[in-house]
Design a protein that fits this description.
Elements lengths: L1 H5 L3 H13 L6 H14 L2 H13 L7 H13 L3 H13 L6 H13 L3 H13 L6 H13 L3 H6 L1
Helix pairs in contact: 2-3, 3-4, 3-5, 4-5, 5-6, 5-7, 6-7, 7-8, 7-9, 8-9
Length: 157
């Protein structure tokens, strides 16, 4: 299933899911994460989001960090940072702790879009949650600050 999804053949991945059900196998969160990632790789991020929502709504699967990170990556890939941040907020409401990769993905996208102040606010939020920024986080911020003519701010943060 994962191979089909990585080869942009999500339909075949769903065919495998049908075989799972037919054989009485219970799919795991990793099964659905592969399908969601396949949609993201195909450029069908909103199909991935719809599948994600259905899984949560019907309680079929409890998302894990890979599934959340995949959705956030897909939303940022299509430029929907607002929805990615909303998902991050919902994770916090559901008592699920985002990780440095999720924050860094959004921060990188905000910086690329020129929303440096929003990225810096997200950095502060990370620190409030005791999530330590890593080299990816800082590289995105430094690049964004320099490209926006705020190089002096890069040395302060």
């Amino acid at each position: 299933m994962n191979c089909f999804c990585r080869l942009n053949q999500v339909d075949f991945g769903f065919a495998i899911l049908g075989i799972f059900f037919k054989c009485g196998c219970t799919p795991k969160v990793s099964t659905f994460s592969a399908l969601i990632n396949g949609y993201v790789l195909e450029g069908n991020t909103y199909e991935a989001v719809n599948l994600f929502r259905r899984l949560i709504k019907y309680g079929d699967i409890e998302p894990d960090e890979i599934m959340y990170a995949t959705i956030i990556k897909g939303l940022c890939k299509v430029g929907d940072t607002t929805m990615a941040i909303r998902l991050l907020r919902n994770m916090q409401k559901w008592n699920y702790r985002p990780d440095v990769v999720m924050y860094s993905t959004i921060i990188d996208n905000l910086c690329k879009d020129g929303n440096i102040d929003d990225a810096l606010r997200l950095l502060s939020e990370m620190r409030e949650w005791d999530i330590m920024p890593d080299v990816v986080t800082y590289s995105s911020l430094v690049d964004g600050l320099c490209k926006s003519g705020r190089g002096e701010d890069a040395t302060r943060n």
